[in-house]
Design a protein that fits this description.
This protein is mainly beta and 364 residues long. Helices cover 4% and strands 56% of the residues. The protein is built from one helix and 39 strands.
Amino acid sequence: MRLLNILISLLASLCLSAQGLAPFTTQQDRLYAFDQGAFTELSTRKPSMVRNIGGRLIYLTENGDLVLYDEGRMQTIERGTRPKVIASDGMAAYYVGTSLKVIGTNGAKSIAYNCADFNVQDSLIAFHDNAQHILGMYWNKQVLTVADVMSESDRPQWLAGPNTLLFYDHERRTIYLTYRGETFELCRTSDFARVSTGGDIVAYVNGDDQTFHVFDHGQDNMIHDFAPQNFQAGDGLVGFVDVNGALRCYNNGMLYDVSDFAPEQYWVQDSLLLFVEQGMLKVFRGDRVEVLERYIPEKWKVFGGLIVYLDLNRTVRSWQAGKRTQLSKEAAIADFELHRDVVLWRSNAGTTKVWWQGKVYEHF
């Protein structure tokens, strides 16, 4: 079952990574979409907000209209309300007054009517409903109650990952986990800060004995006798600095020694662990460490197992599964954007260039 879950997650990741969609604004402030090799004009005026939610785009016009672009079609979701929008890689929701709405393929629908706060992740939305005094969750097209919240209390304390939601019950000093629609007790602790959520994974320090645990695809594993100095969870992996100062990684049920020394910095992003050691940026993947560059790039971004960065000449480059690719021929690129499997940058001549599936497209 565990192997099946991992294979399903990998297949889903591959499907999600090949969207070929990205928004951009021209020098004339026109909004366009790059959509699988074609350029489509969405608006003649620069939007106040635009978000890519994995295969769909949403944007706010200067008049406050909220518009959805999906499979080549545009649909106005709200008119003139200028809602507060929060979007992740997979979902989007917004406020209209105190009503919380989620954006679907056929428009928007309300999921809470007295929302005090909300958070959007890849496959779930967590929200605090003041009127019903609950911490709720929207998942798998359902609205679920995660916990009752006393009306006189402050904002409930929660932490959400791509598909995991933690809630801390102060009275019981207990952390509850909601995963795949089910809520259950994860551990007892007085320190809610000692948890980290990821995709299908939660890392935490057990408050009873200070052991370090990883909840992985439904299984709880004690992976170290002592609490680490710090830790971060990603998609299926956890990076941590142990009590002795060594950098280690839990990945797919295995525990790896990454470095004998604490890194200057480290980051767990999606399915990769990146860290700085002796002035070099290194990446841990699978069961090995590779030097990404013998310097620290000024800027890099990660999606899944893809890293895009600017080299010393400010050329756009990528790294994936050990393979390095030069995306831009010209140097001195000011900036770039990464939208899943699409990379955009503005050339020195002012045109927009787009790299997708090994080919560079240009919009004048």
